[in-house]
Amino acid sequence: MTYTFFALEREDGLLWVWLNRPEKRNFLNLSFWEELPLLVEEIALDKCVKVVCLAAKGSSFSMGLDISEFALKFSELFFGESAAHRQQILELIEKLQKGIKSLLGLEKPVLACVHRHCIGGGLDLIAACDIRLCSRDAIFSLKESELHIVADMGSLQLLPYIIGEARTRELAFTGRDISSEEALQMGLVNRVFEDKESMWQEARKLGLEMAKKDPLVLKGIKAVLNERRNYVVNSSLRHVALWNSAFLQNESFLALIEKWGKRKS
What we know:
Blueprint: E1 6-11, E2 14-19, H1 30-45, E3 51-56, H2 67-73, H3 75-79, H4 83-105, E4 110-114, E5 117-119, H5 121-127, E6 131-135, E7 139-141, H6 155-163, H7 165-174, E8 178-179, H8 180-186, E9 191-193, H9 196-211, H10 215-247, H11 251-264
Helix pairs in contact: 1-4, 2-11, 4-10, 5-6, 6-7
């Protein structure tokens, strides 16, 4: 397939998946959420792909959800008060979650390569990967509380397995930024590199090394490690989708949607 948001490069069993909206610092628009499950399905079916490296073009890995696009496209839905509107909100959240769930279910290892900003939805995305590398200038944050919503794309479900529950609670409640050094200390990333070029070089080396392994063994390792976690994560994603379909329309969130809608109109 040809993708709007993603660019693909292949090399000896290694597939590079690039977030490719550099002019917008890889804000995650609707195209990203619609294309992600289709891309993962294509990767799953491609026997030539053994390992995936997820990286980003431009100055930042991702600034998170494109709130301006969602404010314009779904304003009427967010301001609706009927049960039908709440049902549609639930369906929208579950549609967006589909990509993260598909990535969690992918049987091939995924390395995430982060430079500069990794905010909100970007953090959701890398939390669903197996190994995370970053450059020294990387900044991570779980910003949804500042957008007056409960994070519903995977961070609250996945980060406790990666950095522990106490640290996840702190990041979720505060929305504060953490540096690459702190991310390494808490176990969010495996390694830190001086710049994005050296990170990509090491990711390529690591990915090609992994791609030499028997694919059935790689599949088995991931299946065993993910067995218990994914059951709990999928149940919790359903819970937060139901929660936000009921309580997303708080005054602070609607004021934000109204502000962004006016800014773009």
